[in-house]
Amino acid sequence: MSACLWPGDNPVMKQYHDNEWCRPSYDDSYIFEMLTLEGAQSGLSWSIVLSKREEYIKAFRNFDIRYCSTLSDEELENIKNEYNVIKSPLKLRSVRSNALAVLKLQTEFGSFSDYLWRYTDYRPQINIWDSEEQIPVKTPLSEEISKDLKKRNFKFVGPVIIYSFMQAIGMVDDHIRSCPYHTVNR
């Protein structure tokens, strides 16, 4: 069996591919982490963001949603200066605004997870691709979720980011068919 090629020889990317990517998660904190990291990745490579993941975990207290929702502009500026995170002020402010939006979703739907997973009837979509070139960058579903998240004041949630996010939390399994980490091969 041949695994997906995108992690290459990068050990951090390989660990993420082998142990997290396309594995279903229903944990709000992890889901918020992936939303934050996917938003931070906008315009950059995933390997850059993963290399800074530990700093994000420290800066945002393990992606504590309530904590992130209360961050002041000054605290966000301190995070920018004191931690090895992506320095974009817009991306850093989106952590706070997205945390506030998640809290509203939790009130409305019971959890961020329930809000998202209802789109797929609480089951991952298992795709069967023969090559990575077949994997889309967005889908009608990622466009639908993106549109709704934007209405709910989420930031950095375009349809391409949301499709990557869906892969990150396992709403879709986009491992190629020959990959030992594809659902059908585990």
TrEMBL record:
GO molecular function: DNA-3-methyladenine glycosylase activity; metal ion binding
InterPro entries (alphabetical): Adenine_glyco, DNA-3mA_glycosylase, DNA_glycosylase
Keywords for the protein's UniProt record, in alphabetical order: Glycosidase, Hydrolase, Metal-binding, Zinc
UniProt-annotated binding residues for Zn(2+): 4, 17, 175, 179
Keyword check for Metal-binding: yes
Gene3D superfamilies per the UniProt record, alphabetical: Hypothetical protein, domain 2
Superkingdom of origin organism: Bacteria
Primary enzyme class: hydrolase
Catalytic activity, EC: 3.2.2.20
Keyword Hydrolase: yes
Pfam families named among the record's database cross-references: Adenine_glyco
Gene Ontology BP, a term: base-excision repair
PANTHER family hit by this protein: DNA-3-METHYLADENINE GLYCOSYLASE 1 (PTHR30037), DNA-3-METHYLADENINE GLYCOSYLASE I (PTHR30037:SF4)
Protein name: DNA-3-methyladenine glycosylase I
